[in-house]
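Worked example 2:
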Amino acid sequence: MDCLELADRLDSELETDRYAAIDASANGLQVERTGEVSHVAVAVDAAVETIERAVERDADLLVTHHGISWGGIERVTGTAYHRIAPLITHDVGLYVSHLPLDGHQTLGNAAGVGDVLELSDRQPFGAYEGEHIGQLGVLSEPISVETLVERLAPELDTGGQSVQTLDFGPEKVSTVAIVTGSGVDWLDEAVAAGADVLITGEGKQHIYHEAKEAGISVVLAGHYATETFGVRSVQELVSEWGLETSFIACPTGL
């Protein structure tokens, strides 16, 4: 498949244009490939390690959640050079989907967490500049936060780190709010939505007291770990389109 055609299909599926005005990431095709694409590798981060491993696997296109252009690239030196050079040298394209892959209600990161927990009555959550970057849903039955983590943990690549919990909510939780990555800023929205627990990736100091005072639990499951779901969904989608795919795991433990 032609690289530009594939990028257009991904843009359409992920509704990339909806987030163009609000995302610092240059979503879509960040580095073009001149030849056809037959093998697509996916990873969370477009880092030197994941790019080099994509090259080693003879991938034609690397799809990532975190790309290399955040508001533009002024100079191709240092880190920018070491990331871009192997892509150009080996004719590997780079496609990036940041907020679109957070907010997508079936292919996105939050949707993937919701799938693991088998949430029902799902709706968009995590309002950001008129769009949503998360999901809200209901468990099939009320369970403890400990049980929730036990269900989720096997699907998380935390790099050997434990999942942190702030268990300040009800003894049994039912309504779950999810904003993956760095999503603790949506705690107030979770409280307003009647959520018993907010699942996100990483925390901030102030969230401890805010969650305790609001009577809501927080699960800090890892920024990287909670954002593997979206690219894996893209991998499955591209496989259905008849292309070879592979997943490059590079957990950060953060």
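The radius of gyration is 18 Å. The chain has a mean pLDDT of 97.
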